[in-house]
């Protein structure tokens, strides 16, 4: 049996002299071939390796070659078969074609006929694989928590497929609400670490004084309030994946320690004196432009290049073709079931508005809009008048055109009188005008209360980052502004 390093063609021929001639023909055309003399040997190779092309003699010492052809057909293997026999007849050719043979060669044949047939068969198999891959991509409208079949998301799915098996760091970027944590979880669930922990920490939601302890843990008495030893996220993620969300919010001093941790795989607890090691994969995400953060000196350049091994950019919802409608239908069905409502679809105009709106808050905003519709209404079909501003009502036309709209600010009559004219006394003016921080604080608190304490959801409705709310709350508490 002739052996080659990477044979693309399996030659099944029981006459050694003919086999040598055919192999020489193929080698001159730079086509690698492996030769076997029996049907059993051929079946073993087809089962284990599935070569793209089989040159199959029908008269074999241990079986009829047609049985091999039937096996390939029944198992739906991605293998092209060219039947070769000295006993050619119309009946044999028709039967071979009925069982999926690509072509039929009658002995004797010359080198050109063999080479052209083999090249055509291999090209056909390559095209079939491309088409099959394209079909698989189009069928993936669900992927580990993602919803959407747009070409932009198919590219993301393929990157996750390729990156999942590696230990290399992935750097996920994208606007707020595009699903960066969903992406990190998808990488983890596709990876060999899927049965180990997935630990996520938000670098923008944890006070900088506590961030090192949150990441690496601390020993008892390391600082005021450290009444017991505590494991950090790195230890909890041992063997699995550590996801650092909003990585650009991390303060510079801790960035240095994180870099050392990534390079060595070792760390020291706050207040500790013993090096500890873990085996983890690090994923990180940001809604900022990381290169701009590097250029502005807010993010270490060496840490950036250490983390930015596999970049994954999540497209905003406005660039995802019909995905907004798919996502809206999914949440409509889910929330209608939860709330016991009758909704099952959007009418054509409502679907058009959802499809064409700019969605500055991305998937999170769309999710909240559908939740609001289901909670406040009960019908079988979502109509445009049910869509909240700026999608529904008078602003719907502008919103549907993809223009971000906001309601015009309304000035209280007393404020107008006090600030813009002589009609009101000075006392009325002082009562009508509040400090800006207080107005901002009240707006944020109302949004958080409306979202049942869910700060990321409130941030999406306010069209700001969740970390902005966390920072402002910390600042208000520190300044005693209650």
Overall pLDDT: 84
Distance between the termini: 85 Å
Please mark out the parts with pLDDT under 50 across 5 or more consecutive residues, or reply none.
1-6, 394-430
CATH class designation of the largest domain = Alpha Beta
Spatial extent as radius of gyration: 32 Å
Oligomeric organization of the protein chains? single chain
Dominant shape:
elongated
The share of residues in extended strands comes to 5-15%
- Please tally the helical runs, counting DSSP H or I stretches of 4 or more residues: 21
Q: Please count the beta strands (DSSP E, at least 2 residues each).
A: 18
Characterization of this structure:
The chain has 21 helices and 18 strands. With 482 residues, it is an alpha/beta fold. The protein folds into four domains: 9-135, Response regulator (Rossmann fold, 3-Layer(aba) Sandwich); 143-315, P-loop containing nucleotide triphosphate hydrolases (Rossmann fold), CATH 3.40.50.300; 318-400, Helicase, Ruva Protein, domain 3; 425-479, Arc Repressor Mutant, subunit A. The chain has a five-stranded parallel sheet, sandwiched between helices. The longest helix has 29 residues, at 111-139.
